[in-house]
Amino acid sequence: MSLKKWFGWLVIGIVLLAIGYTVSAQSKQYYWDFINVDITVLANSDIRVVETQKFVFTSGSFHFAYRNIPMNRLESVTDVSVSEEGVAYRPGEEVPGTFTTSRQDGNFRITWYYPYTSNAARTFTIAYTVKGGLRFYEGGDQVWWKAIFPDRDFVVRSARITVHLPGSISREELKVASYGADAEYEIIDGNTIVFTARDIWPGQEVEVRVQFPHGIVQGQPPSWQIAEDRLADYNERYRSLANLVFAVLGLLILIAGAVGLYLVWYTRGRDVPVGVVADYLPEPPSELPPGLVGVLVDEKADMKDIVATIVDLAHRGVISITEEEEPGFLGIGKRRDFIFELLTDDGSLRSYERTLLRRLFRGRGRQVRLSELRNKFYSALPEITAQMYKEVVKEGLFPRSPEKTRSLYIVLGGVLLAGGILIALFAGMFLHTYADTAFCPGLGILLLGPILVVMA
User: Fold this and answer.
1) Which of 348, 369, 395 is the last residue of a domain?
2) Who's near 204: CB < 8 A, 6+ residues apart?
3) pTM, two decimal places
C-alpha cells in the first residue's frame, strides 16, 4: 500500500476514534444530588475539611471519581481518608475500595475507585487536613475555601457548607461572604456559619469567606499570603506607573527606531540630488555600458539590463541580431524569431559580457535562435547578475553589491521581527504579573522589522 493510502487510512482512523470518544463521553451522564462540606478551623490554624458527595449516575458505567484541590493558596494537604456509607477505603492501586493521592498541574488530586456502577446512586465522604490555608491579618484572620469546585461537567442540585470556628466569638465580630454561584448564609452562633445553595451549574463555584478576630488561633501568614499581599500592595502603588513606563518605552522604541531608520536611508540610502542637468548633452556622460547604467539607475540587475547588454554587444559588432519571419500554421499569420550570431571574440569584454556570450552560444556553435533559448537561458541569470553587481562595485559606483546590501537589511528586518516577537512573548509571560503592558517594548521592536524590510 502506498504512503498516501496509509496516511488516508490513518486520518480516517483518528476521526473514527474521535467520534467514538465523543459519543462515549456524551453517553455518560450523572449529577450530584448534594455536596455537603464541613470546614473546621483548628486552634493550630489547620483546616479540617470533610466533604460528603452523593453521585446519581443516570447513563453509562462509572468506577472512579476524583477531587482536585488547588495548591496555590495552601501549603500542604494531609490526613486524607475516603469512605462510602461508613465503610473506609484504603490506600491502594486502582481497585474498588481504594484511593490514591497525587500532584497534577498544580492540584492535589484524590482519586477513589469503586465497583462499576450504572443507573444508581453512591455517597462518598472525603476528608483531609489543609495546612497553611488560613490568612492572618491584624484586622482579623480569614478562612477562604472553594467548597463547591468549578471543574465539573454536571450540575450540583444542592449544597450545604458549614464553617466551625474555635474559641469564643460573638456574631458581631464575624464578617461573612460568598463568591461565585448565589448562596445564602446563616450565622448560627459566633462559632458556626452555614451556607446553602441550589442548582450550581457546571463551571460555577461557591467560595466561602469568614473573618474572625485575630489571635484566636495560633500561626503565622503562609508564604503564599505574603507573596499575594506584596503583589496587592505593588498593584495599588506602582502597577499603573509600570504600565505607563512599559507603554511609553514601547512607543519610544518605535519612534526612535523609525527616526533612526529614516536617517540611515537619508544619509546612506537615498540618491543625493545632483543639481541642474543640461537639457542637451552632445556626448555620453561616460563610457559605462547600458547594462551597468541600468543597474546604477534602479540598483537592480534584471532582465532589462541583460537585454540592453545584448543590444549593446550587437551595436559594438561583437554579435549580430537578425530578425526572421516565417508563415504561420496553414499560412495563417506569421511566426517571428531572432538569430544571434557571434562575430568576434573581443578580449576587452567585461566579465559579465563574456559570461553572457558563453551562456548564449554554449554548445550551439556560433549561431543560436531566440526560440532555442526559451526555458533554458533563465538558469544563466543568477551568474550574470552577480557579475554585474561586482562590476558596478569595481567601477566605484557602489561601496558594495546593492543585492548584498538589500539582503543584509532584509535579514536585519527579520531579526527585529523575530526578536520583537520573542521579547513580547517572554515579557508578557514573565512580567504580566507586574505590568499589563510589559509586551509593548517587544511590540515596538517587532514593528520596526517590517519597516526595515520595506526600506531594504
Assistant:
1) 395
2) 148, 150, 180, 181
3) 0.68
